[in-house]
Amino acid sequence: MQRIPLNIQTLYADLQQQVETASSDEATVVATTVAGIRYLRLQRWVGSSRTVEHLGRADDPEVLVRAEGARAEMARREERRRLVAALRRLIPGPTTALGKVADSVAHAGLFRRGAVLVGTAAYQCYPPLLGAVLPAASVMTQDLDLATADLALDADIQGDSMLAILRRAEPSFSAVPGLDPKAPPSRFRDAQGFVVDLLTPQRGRSDRDPMPLKGLAAGATPLQYLDWLIVDPVPAVALHGAGVPVMLPQPGRFAVHKLIVAQRRGAHEIVKSRKDLAQAGAMIELLRADAPYAWQDALGDAMRRGRDGWSRPIERSLAMLGLEP
Hints:
It is built from eleven helices and 14 strands. It has helices at residues 6-20, 61-88, 96-107, 119-123, 127-130, 162-169, 226-229, 251-264, 270-290, 292-303, 307-320, and strands at residues 2-3, 28-34, 37-46, 49-57, 116-118, 132-133, 143-147, 174-175, 187-189, 195-201, 211-213, 218-223, 234-238, 244-248.
C-alpha cells in the first residue's frame, strides 16, 4: 500500500479542523428587489440541490451582519474546496454519488445526532486517517450504509423525511418496498442504482424488521454486531466538495467486524465475503504497524464476547488471511 506523506496527512488534519468549526451560514448572498424594496437571501448547494433561506430587508442591520458573515464563510469554503481538490490528487475520495448523499445526510444533521457511516462507504473515508491509500479493488461500491443506535434519530429541520434528505442529493431517489407494504422503508435507490440502507443494532430476536425511525418517516434494519461496531465512533472528513463531516467506526472495530461478517455470509455471497476479507486484511496490516494497541484492544474485546458468534469466525477469517490472532 502507498503511504500518504506526513505533510499531506497534516493538510487533512487542517481540513478536518476547518470543517468541524465551519458555520452553517456559509452560503452565497443573493439580492432581490420586490416592490422597490431590496431583500437578501442565502443560497446553498446541498448534494445536487439548491436551498434558499430568506434573510430579510437589505437595510436591516442584523440582516447585513449575517450576510457579511455568510460571505466570509463562503470564502473559507472555497479555500476548503481547493484543499480537498489538492488532497484528492494524492488520496482517492468517495464517488460523486456517495459524496452527494453524505453531504445531504451531514447537512440534515444526522451525523451530529448519532448516525455512523459503515460498510464500504466508510472504508472509502479511512485512508487519510490511517495514513495510506487502501487497495482500490476493495473500495468500489454502489451503496451507502447508515447505522444508528438511536431510533429517535431526526433531522435538524422538522418534517424532513429520509427520502426528502436523499432527494437533495439525487432527485430520482425513491423508497424500495419491503415485504410488508405498510412498514416504513429502510432502503432507498436512485435511477442509477445507488442504494442507501438504514441499519440499527439488533436488540432481540423479536425486533421488528424494519425498526421505525419515526422522525425520518423511515425504518432501519436490525443487525447483529452493529451495536459493537458503532460504539464511540470517530470523526472524519469525506473528500468531496468542500469536505463533508462524517462519523466512522473505530478502525480496529471496523476490521474485526469485517472478519466476523466474512464468515457469516451465505454461499451466494462469496464475492462479498472476499471483499470483507480484503478490507479487513488491508486495515489490519496498517493498524498492526501504526496502532498496534488499538488493534489489540478491539480484537481482544471481540474475542472475549463468545466462541461461536465471535472468536470462531474471527479465527477462521484470520487463518484465511494467513494471520495469527
